[in-house]
Amino acid sequence: MPAKHLIMIGHAALDRVYRVEAFPREPTKVRAIEAIEVGGGMAANAAVTAARLGAKVELWSRVGDDNAAAIIKAGLKAERVDIRSVESFEDARSSTSAIIVDDNAERLIVGMRDTSMPTSTSWLPLERISQADAVLADLRWLEATRVAFEHARKTGVVTIIDADLGAREALPEILELADYAIFSAPALRELFREGDDDARLNRVLARGPRHAGVTLGAQGYLWRETDGSGGAQLGFAVDAVDTTGAGDAFHGAFALALAEGRDTAECARRATAVAAMKCSRLGSRAGLPTSDELEAFLAIRG
After folding, report:
1. What is the per-residue DSSP string for 152-213?
2. Of 52, 94, 225, 249, which has the maximum CB count within 10 A?
3. Structural domain of 237
4. How many domains does the chain have?
5. Is 84 in a helix, a strand, or coil?
6. Degrees to nearest 5, angle at CA 241 with 60 and 189
């Protein structure tokens, strides 16, 4: 079967990850047990996830014209992600993050994004959307998400939004264009402060998507759909080292499973497993499985 073609739109970054025994109680010097430098960013991590699993993936993103951009692009290229539409802008700075992870897999993230990054979408190859099996976007480049989702709707291509914290004011408009809206728990609870998660998901559905879900970390995934169906997928227990990028991995795996024609419950099962496997290694990408590794994991775990 030919590889599924996915387009990911949004954030690409460079992460510098440090593992420490414990967070200090007051400002001081702390020795790192381990440190790595690796590509990050929500859409970029989702792209790498799907590529590892065997998809044909292209990333539409923006970076600066700097050393960080060179590392970001090299990392994506090494993962066989199509980076022709990762545009470098002169005088802009690429996104970077410092991520501190303790022995309990808790983390502190300090991120920098250049708010003056150009927002133009005129150079995007929108004609390629009709050839894709699915389009996934985060909330870090709203102009591109909007125009791509509008084009996808006209051509009948399924769309998935990674709804994390940020861009709350723009979410109602984006939800009207999205087929699948997958929230982090903090983002869902920020958008709708009243009621439980079930009620919140039903309120998301009222905004336009046919599927609304929320990732719940180790607890798994909860979803509801406009036909009245829904479900919950329990998380898979692993020895967690670092949860950085677990949500991104979930989105990338879910998008691929959806493109493969799997039903919602199976999409959720596979995505939850991929997110758990990612957490077994430091950084957002080292723990991402290949397709064979995922199948072996699921065969053992059921």
Report:
1. HHHHT-EEEEEE-SS-GGGHHHHHHH-SEEEEEHHHHHHH--SS-HHHHHHHHHTTS-SEEE
2. 249
3. 5-301
4. 1
5. coil
6. 60
